[in-house]
Design brief:
4-stranded antiparallel beta sheet; 11 helices; 5-stranded antiparallel beta sheet; alpha+beta; about 500 residues
Length: about 500
């Protein structure tokens, strides 16, 4: 009986089997870790996208409330201007009573002592008139501060959704990386689409000026000052002296208004609100026993401009014997001036505010409601080649002229394409809804903004098959190319 000499075939097969098993185990570990890290990055992106939508909704709600408060300031400011003008026409009315004495000796005897107190009346008038001007100035300043607060909130919102160092995506990435051996590999990517969406949502020319001005003019005293009954005075003063002697002052027709515009007249537009106006007009009848009734037209008005503009005005007619028909000297400019405006922006008196793009009424663009991307990236190259023991690189040479390579690091494809950066994209949406008013368009007047997560192709800009480029423009590189190929192949799992 002969024995065969062992040739080692079993050892070779065992070695090849163990090599294959090792490769499979390493590949499984590598794939599992990639999936876990992808889920982690996607969770961070989802959280950042939803937080961006919540922050946008809260910011828009805050702006809406501040716009309402600004409108209240505009009402108050126009009301002060109206009162200045209205009390000024009353001054003109009293001047009419004095003028009636020119044709009535009995009236002249009664009103003559009042002329002797003219200086005292002048001082009191100027003091109260100046205080009213200061009140209008303070109201405008407070309204301006509300506008500045809106700008600050909006700037902070832009930083939070931009993908920059102060964005939600970056801050959540840092929190998720705490304790990691590679704390910088997970980071936010820039999301210019979010900034463009916010800009589009809040840009609609000067409609805010017209909206806010028209709302402020809804106050009846500002727009409809009607005639008054006959005046009767008691005690001291012109009316008291007139009434005590049997005289009467009656306003036959009176009207007035207050508004913003670049000219005197009701046609002024708030989007060219260079000046703040108020005007009054009346037909005054002064009657005195034994004398022919005296009728005269009385007018008054005030024009307030910014501090650097010198065309401020304050007038009334008729004037009294000594009071004139306008504020004296430099008081004409400064008594009723308003706040400082940069020289390149002057003249201007209107309190600015944010607007919503109501002109975008397309459902394909979600009625300009902002879509907010959050991009989280993981840069595997920061780990180095020896970071994970199961990420192996094998090179096989079965023939001298041909070699095969297996690399489980996953940094490059076979053609050399760099895929070392993992991408996770999520989309939030700030949307407007008032309960029971489904057909109400989005706006920045009411604080009914809410937040949710949506798919990246919720609007036309996210639909690659219809020409939208939001997703490729955001992720870029091989990820954008892979996304495009998937969409063209019929993939519908965008989220």
């Amino acid at each position: 009986m002969s024995r065969s000499r062992p040739r080692g075939q079993t050892l070779v097969l065992f070695s090849l089997t163990m090599l294959l098993l090792t490769l499979m185990v390493c590949l499984t570990l590598s794939f599992s870790m990639k999936v876990r890290e992808k889920l982690e990055a996607q969770s961070v992106a989802d959280l950042a996208a939803y937080s961006s939508a919540v922050a946008t909704a809260r910011t828009f709600n805050s702006i809406a409330l501040m716009r309402r408060a600004q409108t209240g300031h505009l009402v108050a400011m126009a009301g002060v201007q109206s009162l200045i003008s209205w009390t000024t026409v009353m001054r003109a009315n009293l001047s009419s009573a004095r003028m009636s004495a020119n044709n009535c000796q009995a009236a002249a005897d009664v009103l003559q002592p009042m002329d002797e107190l003219n200086q005292e009346i002048e001082e009191k008038w100027n003091k109260l008139d100046a205080l009213a001007g200061v009140q209008a100035y303070n109201i405008q300043r407070l309204g301006g501060h509300l506008g500045a607060m809106q700008d600050k909130l909006y700037t902070q919102l832009q930083e939070a959704v931009s993908g920059g160092p102060n964005s939600f995506a970056q801050r959540f990435s840092e929190l998720a990386s705490e304790g990691s051996a590679w704390p910088g590999e997970l980071h936010a990517g820039p999301t210019a689409v979010s900034l463009a969406e916010l800009t589009h949502a809040t840009s609609d020319g000067n409609s805010y000026a017209l909206d806010m001005a028209m709302a402020s003019r809804g106050y009846e005293f500002i727009t409809r000052r009607q005639g008054l009954p006959a005046f009767e005075g008691h005690g001291g003063g012109v009316l008291g002296a007139l009434t005590g002697a049997g005289g009467q002052l009656r306003v036959i027709a009176q009207g007035g208004s207050a508004y913003w515009g670049d000219k005197l007249g009701h046609g002024g537009r708030a989007d060219s609100a260079h000046y703040t106006w108020a005007e009054d007009h009346a037909e005054v009848e002064v009657s005195f026993p034994g004398c022919t009734p005296f009728i005269v037209n009385a007018t008054a008005g005030v024009k307030s401009t910014d501090l650097l503009d010198e065309s401020d005005d304050h007038w009334w007619t008729p004037g009294g014997p000594r009071l004139g028909v306008a504020d004296p000297g430099m008081e004409k400019q400064f008594r009723h001036t308003l706040g400082y405006v940069k020289p390149e922006d002057m003249p201007h008196t209107f309190i600015g505010g944010f607007t919503y793009n109501t002109s975008d009424d397309s459902n394909e663009n979600l009625w300009a409601q902002p879509k907010l991307f959050a991009l989280v990236q993981r840069d595997y190259k920061m780990r180095g080649l020896r970071s994970d023991p199961w990420n192996l690189n094998f090179r096989f040479s079965f023939t001298p002229d041909k070699a095969s390579e297996f690399d489980s690091h996953g940094w490059h494809l076979a053609d050399g394409t760099d895929i070392s950066v993992q991408q996770a994209l999520a989309t939030g949406l700030a949307y407007y809804h008032r309960r029971g008013h489904w057909d109400e368009p989005p706006n920045l007047w009411n604080p009914f903004w809410r937040a949710t997560l949506v798919s990246a192709d919720a609007d036309i800009g996210g639909k690659l098959a219809r020409g939208g480029t939001d997703v490729p423009d955001t992720v870029g590189g091989p990820a954008a190319e892979a996304f495009g190929q998937l969409i063209r192949a019929g993939y519908k799992g965008v989220h």
